[in-house]
Design a protein that fits this description.
By secondary structure, this protein is α/β, with parallel strands linked by helices. The chain has two domains: 104 residues, Aspartate Aminotransferase, domain 1 (Alpha-Beta Complex); 233 residues, 3-Layer(aba) Sandwich (Aspartate Aminotransferase, domain 2). Strands 2-8-7-6-5-3-4 form a seven-stranded mixed β-sheet, sandwiched between helices. The protein has a four-stranded antiparallel β-sheet with strand order 9-10-13-12. Strand 12 and strand 13 form a beta hairpin. The longest helix is centred in the last third of the chain and has 17 residues. The mean pLDDT is 97. It binds ligand TLP. Ligand TLP binds next to helix 3 and helix 4.
């Protein structure tokens, strides 16, 4: 039980005592000179876990995706991705501004492009048309509520992209949540992608960082792009040390977060005015709609009332739309906190 239950994101997780200890003791060097042994250890460990030749430590998931997009594409190419993807919605148009690529968002059912959708979005060779430079997939899918796709679904998309000589990037910010939920090794999801980014700073609870994994040749190019973006860090082993603890100690416990999310979703689904799609709650994210009097204005007001009412009860939640709320479970939220959250929602909605 915690004084404040913070469900706004799993990015709010605090480092564990073991991480702080590892950070204090980390062997470090200048990583731009490729002389930081702890960064190298994290990169090698990440690459090994994802079955790739090499890894590159970056400051954030956003930087990992941007470095990957820029490393795969040329100015004027098009990137095919899901309409609700993080890259398209929440990365400040970095790929367009810095990478000079055009986005080709496609509406999908669960957040995942099907092979037919990829086939339909690939551009034919024509003097008028931007060539397709990259396809992206996100697993787990944030805006669709932490939904997972299988390694086979990713391989099927990869086959179509590769058939047209187009690379595939996986935004696996929460890839280990997918691996734990589907009980599949993380490397199976990465097998057929050309690059993958995952975050150690979300459910895995490290304070900072993400790792890009891919072929040695791709990572060498990505290293230059990271430097260009100002992401060449010096004694970064201080933070990479926590990332190593994240990968070695924090993956299996994600199952607890998934159980807590399910318990929360089931509880909220029984309350008036809240619509929870339980099938979408596969990992640690619960996204639900708020409906009141069948009226958008009343639903918006009810959403604001829920956010404020929870805050007054020391439960922090986040509205991601006019009548839509997201709760994310993580290691600093336990089963008692979930019960308290359900009680807070029950109290607020009782008079509805
Ligand atoms: N997502 C954050 C916010 O930016 C919305 C969150 O709280 O969920 N890919 C995916 C799928 C993500 O969910 C995020 C972060 C990122 C990339 C970017 O990671 P960071 O925040 O490290 O730049």
């Amino acid at each position: 039980m915690h004084d404040i239950v913070d469900l706004r994101s799993d990015t709010l997780t605090l480092p564990t005592p073991e991480m702080r200890e590892a950070m204090a003791r980390a062997d470090v060097g200048d990583d731009v000179w490729e002389e930081d042994p702890t960064v190298k250890r994290l990169e090698a460990l990440a690459a090994e876990r994802l079955g790739k030749e090499a890894g590159l430590f970056v400051a954030s998931g956003t930087m990992g995706n941007l470095v990957s997009v820029v490393s795969h594409t040329h100015a004027g190419q098009e990137v095919v991705l899901d309409l609700d993807s993080h890259i398209f919605n929440y990365e400040v148009a970095g790929a367009a501004v810095i990478g000079n690529v055009q986005m080709r968002p496609v509406k999908t059912a669960r957040g995942f492009l099907t092979p037919d959708q990829v086939r339909g979005a690939l551009r034919p060779a024509n003097i008028h048309i931007p060539p397709t430079g990259l396809v992206c997939v996100e697993n787990t899918h944030n805006r669709h509520g932490g939904t997972c796709c299988t390694p086979e679904e990713i391989s099927a998309i990869a086959a179509v992209a590769h058939g047209a000589s187009v690379p595939l990037h996986l935004d696996g910010a929460r890839l280990f949540n997918a691996a734990v939920a589907l009980k599949r090794p993380a490397r199976e999801f990465a097998r057929d992608v050309d690059s993958v980014t995952f975050c150690v700073s979300k459910g895995l609870a490290a304070p900072v960082g993400s790792v890009i994994c891919g072929s040695a040749e791709f990572i060498a190019r990505a290293r230059r792009v990271r430097k260009m973006l100002g992401g060449g860090m010096r004694q970064a082993g201080i933070i990479a040390a926590a990332g190593i603890v994240a990968l070695e100690r924090m993956v299996d416990r994600l199952a607890e977060d998934h159980a807590n999310a399910r318990a929360l979703a089931e509880g909220l689904g029984r309350l008036p005015g809240l619509s929870v799609d339980l099938a979408s709650v596969q990992t640690n994210i619960v996204i639900f709609g708020v409906e009141r009097a069948g009226d958008p204005a009343a639903s918006g007001a009810a959403t604001a009332e829920l956010v404020a009412g929870c805050a007054a009860r020391k439960v922090k939640i986040h509205a991601i739309g006019p009548a839509s709320i997201r709760c994310v479970t993580h290691k600093d939220v336990d089963a008692e906190d979930i019960a308290r959250t359900r009680d807070a929602f029950a109290e607020i909605t009782r008079k509805w």
